[in-house]
Design goal:
This protein is mainly α. The chain is 76% helix and 0% strand. It is built from three helices and no strands. The radius of gyration is 13 Å and the shape is globular.
Length: 80
């Protein structure tokens, strides 16, 4: 069984937020939460495929979904 790496979650959140910021700044693409989840899954799968942070493709998907949930929770807590 592979171990879960919390640093991978932080990296995925950072990469996705960077991509979203660039898309919003330089294009007219309205980034919804669905697109954010898809971007997060793509990044998680790529990190898992390349075995960065000791991830496999499966744990990369789990880290991506966890990162999406943590980011949405932090966003809701920050707005209240």
């Amino acid at each position: 069984m592979d171990s879960f790496n919390p640093a991978a979650v932080a990296v995925i959140i950072g990469i996705v937020r960077g991509i979203v910021a660039v898309l919003q700044q330089y294009t007219k693409i309205d980034v919804t939460s669905v697109l954010g989840v898809v971007l997060s899954l793509i990044v998680g799968i790529i990190l898992g495929f390349l075995h960065y942070f000791g991830l496999t493709i499966e744990t990369g998907i789990i880290a991506a979904l966890t990162g999406t949930g943590v980011y949405q929770l932090a966003k809701k807590v920050g707005n209240s």
